[in-house]
Amino acid sequence: MTPGRFPPRVRIAPSPTGAPHVGTAYVALFNRTFAKKHGGQFILRIEDTDRTRSTRESEDAIYRALRWLGLDWDEGPDVGGPCAPYRQSERSAIYADHARMLLDNGTAYRCFCTAERLEELRAFQRAAKRPPGYDGLCRKIPKDESDRRATAAEPFVIRLRIPDDGATAFDDLLRGRIEIANKDVDDQVLMKSDGFPTYHLANVVDDKLMGITHVMRAEEWIPSTPKHLLLYRAFGWEPPVFCHLPLLRNQDKSKISKRKNPTSLEWYQEQGYLPAALLNFLALMGWTTNDNTEIFSVDRMLEEFAPETITTSSPVFDLTKLDWLNGEYIRALATDALTDKLIAFYAERGRTLDRALMLRIVPLVRERLKKLVEFDEMTQFFFTDAITIDLAEFDAAKKLTPDQRKQALTAALAVVRGTTPFTKDAMEAPMKAALESLGFKMGDFFMCLRIAITGKRATPPLLESMEVLGQDVCVRRIEAALRLLG
Ligand code: GLU
In angstroms, what is the span from residue 413 Cα to ligand 1's centroid? Predict the structure, then answer.
């Protein structure tokens, strides 16, 4: 049984800087699944305390991307809730009050050290090969002096007084006991000189005030957790349960990064990954079903999920695997469902596709489609009158001389003209007879025809495609190719 208070209240707390990150969706999926399973709430909090990097566009993009994936939330800046506001920039007074509480009970202190002094200190520590960190100079300032200097408008930050000795430990739900010696923890800045809180203060205060029971976040936050626990202690609060999820990693095991993998959720949407496939893929990064089925829905995950069953091994973010999964999801769709998805996908991109025609084309490409965006490239020749052919493409019919290529097309043209009804089944036997009578290899013969009809070497099944295009179009294209061949 998972420890902690139930029903759970969990959250994601993205910072709205830059494009919506795939890691946000990953953490959201696990948190949301846990909340739903136990009738709890999933909260979206916007951590925009970094005033220079946070933007409203980025915040809106997070909402759009998570909604696209179906990862909706019960409380958040845009939907409200009992703990509003859910945007940290609107909670400044709350953090100021809480920092004051810590000053008053002596667990935090004002630090008046100037930027120059801190820089000198760092330089000295570097030279002495000591770990960087604040040396605690301002800890010794008596309370009345500190108050006086603050009243006199001397700039200061507020730091947490970390004990010199001992260690801070917690039981991570997945990793067991984690202990960090207090001497390795810096006197963390809680309030900056501009009066804005740092991540640590705002995060802990909000988790407490929003009633968060379980903090499920990425592994990279483990080093911050002792500071958070010391903050809980300083306030006299009971901490939540901590569960640090495995980080998404590049092939070389480094933390997933833009340089090595697409990290923006917008990219995944643009490519035409299906939300269900992407969620399945993200789930697999840290979890699998009881019987190790690789393809499963969020509903199935909901049934079997428990936080303790998350793996801590470092999953590699492998796009080839995602492509495979997405292809599986695409093939699992019925033709009209896939057709509607494609029509909607392209409509969002300003292109209108004829449903009746689509219903004939979709069965021809569904087997090879890995992402919706590939449909365009695969099927252009259906949607245009004028295909362009590069003469050099015909070199793909390797064994045939230029003259023989013309013979192949001339024979194919006769079959096309003479076949009624104009169907794949009706064309098959006469095409075969034609190529046999010429003595050409099947591959070469059909390569010439494929290029004439589509302009490309690799396409959906050819005779089926010709049937969809119709007799007149095929006649015209073969004639044009013959003219091109001279
Ligand atoms: N604002 C942090 C982030 O951007 C939140 C980390 C946490 O969940 O505590 O990921």
Answer: 65
| 222-234 average pLDDT score | 97
pLDDT averaged over the chain?
96
- Burial string for 377-401 (b: 16+ CB within 10 Å, else e) reads ebbebbeeeebebeeebbebbeebe
The Å distance, Cα 308 to ligand 1 centre, comes to 21
How far does the centroid of ligand 1 lie from the alpha carbon of residue 198, in Å?
A: 12
Handedness of CA 65, 71, 77, 79 (dihedral sign): positive
| Distance of alpha carbon 274 from alpha carbon 265, whole angstroms | 12
Domains and CATH numbers, the chain: 1-76+246-331 (3.40.50.620), 333-380 (1.10.8), 391-485 (1.10.10.350)
Confidence grade of residue 388 (pLDDT, cut at 50, 70, 90) = very high
Cα 400 from chain centroid (whole Å): 48
Check if the beta carbon of residue 335 is closer than 8 Å to that of residue 366: yes
Query: Across residues 168-172, what is the average pLDDT?
Result: 97
Tell me how far apart the alpha carbons of residues 82 and 461 are, in angstroms, rounded to a whole number: 58
Report d(CA 325, CA 116) in Å as an integer. Answer: 54
Local structure of residue 308 (DSSP, 8 states): G
pLDDT tens, residue by residue, 47-74? 999 999 999 999 999 999 999 999 999 9
d(CA 412, CA 88): 70
Cβ of 203 closer than 6 Å to ligand 1, yes or no, is yes
SS3 (DSSP) at 98: helix
Q: How confident is the model at residue 315 (pLDDT cuts 50, 70, 90)?
A: confident
- Whether the pTM exceeds 0.85: the reply is yes
Collapsing DSSP states into helix, strand and coil, what is residue 172? Answer: strand
Q: What is the pLDDT of residue 385?
A: 86
Of all protein residues, the one whose alpha carbon is nearest to atom 6 of ligand 1 is 13
Measured at the CA of 116, the angle between CA 114 and CA 119, to 5 degrees, comes to 115
Active site residue 258: yes
Give the atom of ligand 1 at the shortest distance from the alpha carbon of 215. 8
User: pLDDT tier at 314 (50, 70, 90 boundaries)?
Assistant: confident
* Residue 404 pLDDT > 90: yes
Q: CA 377 to CA 113: how far, in whole Å?
A: 61
Average of per-residue pLDDT across 10-28:
97
Predicted local distance difference test score (pLDDT) of residue 313: 84
* 3-class state of residue 149 by DSSP: helix
Respond yes or no on whether the N-terminal peptide bond of residue 421 is cis (omega within 30° of 0): yes
Does the C-beta of 214 come closer than 6 Å to ligand 1?
no
Q: Which residue among 258, 321, 399, 432 is the active-site one?
A: 258
47 lines ligand 1 (CB under 6 A): yes
